[in-house]
Amino acid sequence: MAFLLAAALLLRRYLACYRGRLAQGWDRLLLIVLVAAIGAGSGLWHLTSQRWAMVSDVLSIAAFISVFLLVFLMRVAGLVALPALGLTLLYHAVNQGVQAALPPDFLNGSVFYLPTWLALLLMTTWLARQGHPQWRVYAWAGGLFLISLTLRTVDQAWCTRLPMGTHFLWHLLNAGVLYLLVALLLEPPPGTPIAHLEETPTTGGDSIGFPHPPPSWPASTSSRVPHLDCDHHASSSLRGPGCL
Predict the structure, then answer these.
(1) In this structure, are residues 118 and 98 in contact, taking their beta carbons and an 8 Å threshold?
(2) Tens-of-pLDDT digits for all 244 residues of the chain?
(3) What residue segments make up the domains of the chain, in order of their start?
(4) Which string of DSSP letters, residue by residue, matches 112-123?
(5) What is the DSSP secondary structure assignment for residue 113, as one 8-state letter?
(6) How many helices (H) and strands (E) are present in the chain, helices listed first?
(7) Is the pTM of this model over 0.90?
(8) Are the C-beta atoms of 74 and 206 separated by less than 8 Å?
């Protein structure tokens, strides 16, 4: 339920930010759909304990990680498609290598998520070094993910003391992590260009219309690169709490 709630809140922000321009943020919408898919897959796996449900759970998580990395690398870091795809594949190769090198029950099976936390740490460090005004959002997400990962790891060891276990807290906190990660992508801070996929940039960018961000985030904007302004494009009745 926590992931579905996070997806619903993200969808509300998305509709507010992209009112009348929904196709322009299709990649962010896909991330929101995948957040909901993680909630559905996890729920089915815990309710049925069937192999097909486990597969749907794992695939939805892997799909979210892949799409998120691509969106971050292209929308935020300004990479073109091929390098972004290469780094995403490198992440999965490292993940597979870590899982192959360590026992499957290491850290109560949490080894799968160690490269994910490391990737989040690297993204946060990069945002901070670039002077991105909202790097702290990812720092909070990284800290929250570390806490949730710890709770997942100690779940079995604490079962004798805490009959409910701590696994449910892993899910609750991770829903918050995914909300923070995707919410930042819905509206960049002032001065940050965001792609309009219907338009082809005259300089920079790549074949599917992603422009490069400026060298520093507070830099002045270019008239050739459209910007997302929820206050301008969304009515107050739809904005709600506003976008990040």
Answers:
(1) no
(2) 889 999 999 999 998 888 777 777 889 999 999 999 998 988 787 678 788 888 888 899 999 999 999 999 998 899 999 999 999 999 999 988 988 888 767 766 677 788 898 999 999 999 999 988 889 999 999 999 999 888 877 766 556 666 666 666 777 898 999 999 999 888 644 444 444 333 333 333 333 333 344 444 443 333 232 333 444 443 333 333 333 3
(3) 2-216+223-239
(4) GGHHHHHHHHHH
(5) G
(6) 9, 0
(7) no
(8) yes
